[in-house]
Amino acid sequence: MASGMEAVAMxxxxxxxxxxxxxxxxxxxxxxxNGDVLYDKFIRPEGEISxxxxxxxxxxxxxxxxxxxxAVARLEILRLLSGKLVVGHDLKHDFDALKESMSGYNIYxxxxxxxxxxxxxxxxxxxxxxxVLSERLLGWRIQxxxxxxxxxxxxxxxxxxxxxxxxxxxx
Length: 171
Prior knowledge:
Layout (H helix, E strand, L loop, with lengths): L6 E11 L4 E10 L5 E8 L4 E3 L2 H4 L3 H4 L3 E2 H12 L3 E4 L2 H7 L8 E4 L4 H6 L10 H9 L12 H20 L1
Parallel strand pairs: 1-6, 3-5, 6-7
Antiparallel strand pairs: 1-2, 1-4, 2-3
Helix pairs in contact: 6-7
C-alpha cells in the first residue's frame, strides 16, 4: 500500500451484455480522499444489453439514454486513475470491466485487507463484503436499497475504510 500517494476510490456497476450476459461497465464513480465525487457517469457498454441487473446495479434503460460510450469513458477514467493509489472493494471486477490490467496500478483493496477484517471481528471469514465491513467499522448501512447499489456510496465507503486501515497501521 503506497501511503503518501494521492488516493482515489473507484466503484463500478455492471450490466449483462450478449446472449451469455457477460459483465460490462455501465456506471463508474470515483471519489477523492474526502469523498468528493471526481467522476460519476453512466456508460454505454459495447454490445447489446441483455440484462440490466437493476436490483444490484441500479441501472435502468433510461440511464443508457445519453450515456457516455465505453471507449470515451474508459479513457476518461484511466486518465483520472493514472499515478494514484486506487482504492476499492474487489477491484479485480472493476478493472476487468474497464478492460484494464491492475498490474500497472497501485492498489488498496478492502476485500483483501486482513487487518481491516480483524478490526471488524471477521478474521475467520473466507470473504467479506463491503456492506458488512461498512456496517461493522463505519456504522453505515449500504447496498440495502431495492433500486440497486450506488457506486458513489460504495466508493465513499471504500475510501473511508482505507482511512481506517491507515489509522490502524499507524497505531
